[in-house]
Amino acid sequence: MLTMQPLGCLPNKAKTLSYEKCDKPLNNDTIFHNTLLQKAVQRLNSETTDSPFYILDLYGAFMSVINKQGGGDYSGIDKTGSAPLLKPCCTPTARKALCGSVDANGVKLYTLCENPNDSLFWDLYHPTQSGWQEISSTLKPSFDELMIHNNHLNIYPRRPSASVATT
Questions:
Q1: Tens digits of per-residue pLDDT, 46-104?
Q2: d(CA 64, CA 74)
Q3: Who contacts 43 (Cβ-Cβ below 8 Å, separation ≥6)?
Q4: pTM of this structure
Q5: Where would I find the H helices in the chain?
């Protein structure tokens, strides 16, 4: 299972803070949710021995990337000092528009940043490819540990080998 990402750091919420800060009350709600998830998983694991449940900390991975790109203690501005870290690459220009929206004449209702690889977020909710790469790199040690642990438990049985008929 995955913990919930820091919802207060998603651009749709950080927008009200000029993309320079995470919404702390919403992040606190997210932390509360993740704590309840951890308790539920602990309870499930105490009730079963066959198939343990694991949690990958998506919240921690997001915050690690945000803090790293923000130069340590997240200040809201990327390390280069040029742009708010939480500002998405694709920004709607009309009230109800989304990235990719066009008006009746085919005119784009959004703007794009110059280089999406320099942005953590693609739109108001989703990381860019490079953002996901950073986040997944942060999760990789936990995932590797999970896979090693599962191999020791023999949770993933080996497939039977195919017999080859010879004549």
A1: 998 777 888 999 999 999 999 887 655 444 444 555 567 899 999 999 989 999 999 99
A2: 9
A3: none
A4: 0.79
A5: 11-14, 24-47, 58-69, 129-153
